Amino acid sequence: MSKATASTHPHEQSRTGVSHEGQPRDAPREEALGKNQEKLLNVNTELVQRVGDLTKMNAEVQDSRRAALNLMEDAVRSRQTIEMLNQELRESEEALRGVNDKLEQRVIERTQELAQSEDRLRALATELNLAEQRERKRLATDLHDYLAQLLVVGVMTLSQAKRIGLPPRAEDFVKQTEETLGKALTYCRTLMAELSPPVLQEQGLPAGLMWLVDYMQRHELAVTVDVERAGDIVLPEDRAVLLFQSVRELLINVAKHGTVKRATVRMIHEEGLLRIVVRDENGFDLAAAAAAAAAADNTSPLSSKFGLFSIRERMKSLGGSFDLQSAPGQGTTATLTLRSSVEC
Fold first, then answer.
1. Nearest residue to 134 (alpha-carbon basis) of 202, 195, 188
2. Using CA atoms, how far apart are residues 271 and 223, in angstroms rounded to an integer?
3. 238 with 278: CB under 8 angstroms?
4. Where exactly are the structural domains of the chain?
5. CA atoms of 160 and 147, how far apart (whole Å)
6. Distance of alpha carbon 240 from alpha carbon 248, whole angstroms
7. How many percent of the chain have pLDDT more than 90?
8. Strand-pair partners of 331
9. What are the CA-CA distances from residue 53 to residues 38, 63, 266, 297 (Å)?
10. Which of 85, 262, 285, 334 is the Cys-Cys partner for 278 at CB 3.0 to 4.6 Å?
11. DSSP-derived secondary structure for 226-265
């Protein structure tokens, strides 16, 4: 009976799906199939995830592209704006250059006009000084030829009257009148010398500067003049007069404002230059003095600033220069410089 059971037909065993060991014959295949399905699910999941990532990346790329397009549009607009601004800038620069050119031209024209005006004013100032000197000389000549002669005749007439004998009272009267006429004659001669020193016309500038020693004593100023280094220089009368007037004005300024009543004048001719140096020991602050002079302070050493300006303009008109140096405790030095090419 057992044998009959064991000899069951193989096909029947296969239909039952059970092997002779008692396990299903398709289990490995199903296991492999399950693993493959699991792998496929994993791959599908990964693919879905990758598709999601790619979709996200595509959206980001689209956003970036739109942003890039916006940036490009902004760049184009910015470029257009920059080009427009550059064009406006070029036009503004061109207009500015035109304005600058016109302004420079006007400045050049005004500068030339100012220089011409200064030259005309300087020439006018020189002519005025020369006219003043001519008038001084004319007045001095008139005083000498008329008033002085009349005073001399008056003195001589009184002297003759005294010789013929007069009553005592009349003689006293004549004596007083003679003394008065003598004083008038002395003053007349002094006035003639101040108006136009004869020594300046007759003997030249060095002698004229020496004459200032006695002249400045009347202003209580002791002056020392050194002309030994001047040589035999001879100047045209107009230049000699202007230099003489400048030196006299500087000395009068010292006498008027200085506490030390001493000054020196040196006339030097060397290396083609004529220099006249006026020196005193009354130093002052030039800036403070200029401010005080501007405030119309008559006690300022520069209160006669118009006179100093006139001196500077005189020297410029001659092609020379005027330099003023001063400091407290160091004295004041004024230097008039003129090229000796003006000699004749």
1. 195
2. 27
3. no
4. 133-187, 198-342
5. 20
6. 12
7. 20
8. 327
9. 22, 15, 106, 96
10. 334
11. E-GGGTT----HHHHHHHHHHHHHHHHHHHHH-SS-EEEE
181, two tokens: 């006429």
Element (H, E) at 36: helix 27-142
Count other C-beta atoms under 10 Å from residue 299's C-beta. 10
Nearest of 250, 293, 277, 289 to residue 333 by alpha carbon: 277
> pLDDT, tens digit, for every residue of 42-96?
888 888 888 888 888 888 888 888 888 888 888 899 889 999 999 999 999 999 9
Containing H/E element for 333?
strand 331-339
Give the tokens for residue 210: 């020496």
Is the separation of the CB atoms in 291 and 309 below 8 Å? no
pLDDT band at 330 (very low <50, low <70, confident <90, very high): confident
CATH of 198-342, one of 3.30.565.10, 3.60.9.10, 3.40.50.300, 3.90.180.10: 3.30.565.10
Task: Give the residue from 145, 129, 78, 156 showing the smallest Cα distance to 239.
Answer: 129
Place of tokens 């016109």: 102
What token pair was written down for 130?
């020369």
Residues, the chain:
344
Distance, in Å, from the CA atom of 64 to the CA atom of 58, rounded to the nearest integer, reads: 9
The model's pTM is 0.59
